[in-house]
Amino acid sequence: MIEPLLIDPELGSRIQFGGTLSVHIVFAALSVGLAPYIVYFTYKEISTGREKYERLRSFWTKIFAIGFVMGTATGIPMSFQFGTNFPAFSEFAGELIGGPLAFESTMAFFLEAVFLGVLLFGRERVSDRVYVLSSVLVMVGAWLSALWILIVNSWMQTPQGYELIEENGVTGLVLTDPIAAYFTPRLFWMYVHMQNAAVISVTLFVAGVAAYFVWTNPDSEPWRGTLKLSVGVLAITSIFQVIHGDMYTRHVVQTQPMKFAAMEALYETKEGAPLHLLAFPRNLADITDPRAEELFTVSIPYLASFLAEADPTGVVYGLEEFDVQNPPVAYVFWSFRTMVFLGFWFIALGLWGVYRMRKGTLFERGRFLKALMASIPLGFVATIVGWYVTEIGRQPWIIQDVQLTSEGVSQTLTSTQMTISLSAFAIAYAILVVLFIRVIKWIVDDELERVLEDDFERVEQERTDDQAPSGSGEV
Amino acid sequence: MTTNFPIMADVTRVDTVLFGPVVPVDEYLIPWLPELWFGILLFTLGMYVFLDGFDFGIGMLYGTREDEAERDLLLSIFGPVWDANEVWLVAFGTVLFAAFPPVYASLLSDHYLLVFAIVFALILRGITPELREQRDEPEWVRACDRGFVVGSTLSPFFIGTLAGSWVFGTGTIALPSVLTGVAVVFLSVASGAAYVAMKTTDTLREEMVRYGLYAAAGYLLSVVVLLITVFLTDPLGVRETLLSTPVLAVVLVTVVFLGIGVVAATRDALEVTWWFYATGGVAFALITLVAILLYPDLYPATGTTVRESIISPLALNVLTVVVIPVLFLVLAYFRYLYTVFSGPVEHEDGYGTSD
Q: For residues B311 and B307, what is the distance between their CA atoms, to the nearest angstrom?
């Protein structure tokens, strides 16, 4: 019997969706976060006519283009999985989910794809003004795309604007109030948090690349400017993210108490519950099955209660209150902790950079530049684990308190089909990630030659200046 | 106006200030709105077959080019537009989901592995030209080229196969599905050759015209074999429909369009444009054929009709009010895109953002 080697369709569907999402979100965040930089460099290139902006625009547009292709390649399977793996969910909630997805493809995806074509190939064919406008429209497309996707997701977290109906013994949802359904209580929190996360992720990427080039050649004018810009953006956005994230958490406590209990690994309902800032496992079992009380934690007493109820002695519900078997607490708890920890690290990096900028040592080779380079992937890691908190934290519900994930999954899918598709996805996505990293490295290598030439030109320039027998400086 | 959800009449509704007066809550904006959405759905599919069809064709014809400069030329013809063209597939998928969720759910889950075969072929087709530009090493370029040709061939084949088992109601892969796949491959080559011929001059154009003619013949042959097969096996009981006047008229139209295209292609420059329009005409005639074969069903394998699978009135009205104006906007910027990149392609245009 080879049966045990085949994966269960429900579990497989969840792993497949989660896995493809984990890869896709990196490219989605790259599009969203890099778009403002593209707009900025394009605008500067056109308005100042300076060569350094053209170089930066060209460099980042190459990465944007490859990211967009990867995003499309990894995103199409995402949308099809609603039908292939979760048809019961699609049929049940299609009226609410399908609309925003159609709005996304027609309003946002077309806009981004059409004007990316103009941005990549049309420099010689369109006017300066249209060229800048194309970069703006690409950004509008990317940001609007994220809005509609998050409208779908936030509805799954805090559903409203619908009614349950039964027809021929089959239950389904009917849209009754589109405004309520599309603009749920969660949307604002989720959109601001996600878009800012994308900007932070890309800013760390930009800063890390700039740090690498500045390390190679501290006099490279384009990359000095980029480093300064990105460090400034990082300081502002990372501080904002933690403040906003804190308020967002309060909203989660009020609307999805079960998710908050999983985030805090709180099993028993408590009055005056503490908030665990940092947690360390004492043994292996604590990693796979964390229970806050048994961990070594650095906590602020009463804070969880205060967050939840604006009252230090308020009641925080534990997992015991909810009718769930084997909630996936470990993923949620450690993901949340990773995200928060990284969030504080980003603030530290931003402030460290600002401090060095004020001291005038930003471009000196040292630990700071190394830290920036090492932090290149961390923004994306924080974004991914943030999604784990959001998506796994809701389990076993696919739509909070309305439909269970087990009810939404395909009833006809066989273990064989599931195993084949999951293996194919694992291989294909791994190849995509490797190729992406390789291509980025090539683009960086190409730029490296130019960065070294920057130095060469400067030295040349200085030499000519020194040798000039009657330069203007002497007059 | 009756709805598909009789129980809804008893439901007390929240009267939304915005939607109440503007968009009717309990009935469709117009009585035949579900049929209109059936039309919009097929329109997005038609746009996809037409636009990404020639991208696939270019990808397959790419395999016939040995000369490096010609390969680059083909890529630069394809580069600025393929990404936008591909979005019509996503539009088709999401419109199907948004307007007819039960059919979306069963069509995709019934063809589980085939859907992912399409997806993987599209990924291969999409990323290879982009990757190719990043490195000059001959081995790398060759590997990317191969992937590009394979992806461009398999994508239309799998898509056609899925379309075949959808329309001919086999519900699973059968002979009619595979034959549809083959027909779509030939059609793609024909329109790809037309597009390249339109964008180029001299010898390359002549060769493209020749390939286009072969492909047109292959398309006709596969469609004839397909129709005979469906007629003989008749999985849906469509034998009579197949012989009806509208069906025969539409089949005749696709043949006439291809004929016009062939005559035009053997003439001068301007008429190659007409050949290109003719292949577009074939794509939309085929979609009309699909409409005739399907309606009133939307998914023959389960016998689900358009009316049974459409969403409730309010949801459909909202969809209509939002998506229809947006689609006109989309058509406007497609027109703009093709205007910007109109005219013959020059060798220096290149692919990607290399400076």
A: 9
User: pTM, whole model, 2 decimals?
Assistant: 0.88
Cβ atoms of A265 and A333 within 8 Å: the answer is yes
Tokens of A147: 């809005």
CA distances (Å), origin A188, targets A30, A199, A259, A363, B30: 21, 17, 18, 38, 34
Report pLDDT digits (tens) over B131-150: 888 888 889 888 999 999 99
Nearest CA in chain B to A85: B109
A424 chain-B contacts, CB cut-off 8 A: 116, 120
What's the rounded mean pLDDT across residues A424-442? Answer: 91
B127·A435 Cβ contact <8 A: yes
Beta strands per DSSP E along A349-444:
397-399, 403-404
Three-state SS for A382? helix
> In the structure, how many helices (H) and strands (E) does chain B have?
13, 2
Q: Is A413 helix (H, G, I), strand (E, B) or coil?
A: coil
Q: Which of B51, B56, B45 is nearest to B215 (CA)?
A: B56
Minimal C-alpha gap between B288 and chain A (Å) = 22
Residues of chain B predicted below pLDDT 70: 1-23, 170-171, 235-237, 268-270, 346-355
pLDDT tens for residues A395-423? 888 888 888 888 888 888 888 889 988 99
Residue B98 is inside which H or E element, if any? Answer: helix B68-99
Q: pLDDT-derived band of residue A467, with 50, 70 and 90 as boundaries?
A: low
List of chain B residues whose C-beta atoms are within 8 Å of the C-beta of residue A435: 127, 131
Contact B90 A66 (CB under 8 A): no
List, in order, residues 6 or more apart from B126 with CB less than 8 Å away: A69, A72, A73, B82, B83, B86, B151
Structure confidence at residue A466 (pLDDT): 63
